[in-house]
Amino acid sequence: MSETNPPPQHANHIASQNPVRRQAITPQLKRSLRNQTWTFIRKVATAPESWGREHWILGGSAVLLTVLVGVIMPTFASATRSDTAGAALTTLQLPLPPLPASASAEAAIASLAADAGNEPDWKIAIVKTGQSLSDIFREQGLAPSDLQRTLDTQADATALRQIRPGDEFAFDIDSSGTLRTLRFDRNDAARVTLDFAADKVTESIQDRALERRVEVAHGVINSSLFEAGDQAGMSDLMTLRLANAFGYDIDFAQDLRVGDSFSVIYDQVYRDGERLHGGDIIAATFVNQGKRFTAIRFTDAKGETLYYTEDGRPLRKAFLRTPVEFTRISSKFTVGRMHPILGKMRAHRGVDYAAPSGTPIRAAGAGKIVFRGKQNGYGNVVILQHQGKFTTLYGHMSRFAAGKLGQHVSQGQVIGYVGMTGLATGPHLHYEFRINGMHRDPLTVTLPKEEPLPASELARFNKGSGVLLARLKMVEAVHLARQD
């Protein structure tokens, strides 16, 4: 069995085990120890003896840099030093305002506190759908006399009687339930504050600046007009206004086609930097089935605002093409049709527009009510006389709107509501158009046109319309370029 020796721990141990090895290592160790005693200064002193060309260049550069720093830094320090030793200083003694007496200071603080205590403690009420101002006053615990007193202060109480969802009313009511202050917006640009005292009501009006920002949009019909408007960044309200502008020439229920397009210039109303609501269609073009229509908003010398074609002719026709918002045409004009109830062939001298019960029916044109009542087969019916030789008939109404025999109505005014009175299998409007007593197809009859602007107005119209038309063409060109 061999014996394992423990590993050597250091060089002396190795040397003691092997005399030959010891003689070889000892001089080596001595030289190593001697080398460790060299100092940095000794290295530097002896180094130049072995320097080459590169070492001399580097060393010379270091010496030159040291000299430059020593010369430049003191000069720079002297240049940037501010010598204020020679500047003359002047001391001014300013009188301080006297401190107020403690009593007057306490009075001023008390006055500020009193003013802060008089600030209204507003309770905000936002109008909900179906609410009236009476409902809102009742919710605030106010008596009907408070509402009547409020209405009596307004020469024109339209803003109070015709409130809309989203309108805001602010009430300041004291601890006893007495109305002290009421605040509301009379319109977008005027805020009214009413201060109630025992004997009188004081009104103050704050003018609120409005800003109109013009925007442009372009859309292409893929499924519906409202979907295209949404894709173009327009609100549903603005899309509806676009449809109303072209409603005399385009039947958006049955004339719209995939690929139709529109370009619009419109504005938005802002107040205090925030968007308040949509504004108006300023100008627009609509390409329907390859035919181009243009609408330009213009206010004439009489203050009437309408949409006009490029040549200054009003888009508004003497008659609406469709007097009701309908879902479909359930029966067209024909000389022979099997009557769904009577079961025999009869001429159908009008157009039936299917629509939900209660849908408003509007006067196709300005005219006079010459019949309002019941007729066999038609149920509740209204007949209007227009411009002497034109008459329109509206049948199967569920009920009549306000109005009476002989009364004049304006174009678009609601005269009744869709129903199914008389001989009808479902709710719809039966609409007839007659010229000198002769029935004409409402869908194809040539409607009379409005007269163009007079020469004096046309020059002003052309000046503004030229800029708008150029911008619309630019919008269309940009979108055509994107498609290419």
Describe the protein's architecture and organization.
- The chain is of the alpha+beta class.
- It folds into three domains: 122-207, Nuclear Transport Factor 2, Chain: A (Roll), CATH 3.10.450.350; 209-317 and 450-484, Nuclear Transport Factor 2, Chain: A (Roll); 328-440, Glucose Permease (Domain IIA).
- 29% of the residues lie in helices and 31% in strands.
- The protein has eleven helices and 22 strands.
- The chain has helices at 11-17, 19-36, 40-46, 53-80, 102-117, 133-139, 144-152, 158-161, 225-231, 236-245, 455-483, and strands at residues 122-126, 168-173, 179-187, 190-196, 201-207, 210-220, 261-271, 274-288, 291-299, 305-308, 328-331, 334-338, 345-348, 351-354, 360-362, 367-375, 379-386, 390-400, 408-409, 414-418, 428-435, 438-440.
- The strands form four sheets. Strands 11, 14, 15, 16, 17, 18, 19, 20, 21 and 22 form a ten-stranded antiparallel sheet that branches.
- Helix 1 (11-17) runs antiparallel to helix 2 (19-36) and helix 9 packs across helix 10.
- The radius of gyration is 46 Å and the shape is extended.
- It starts with 10 loop residues before the first helix and ends with a helix.
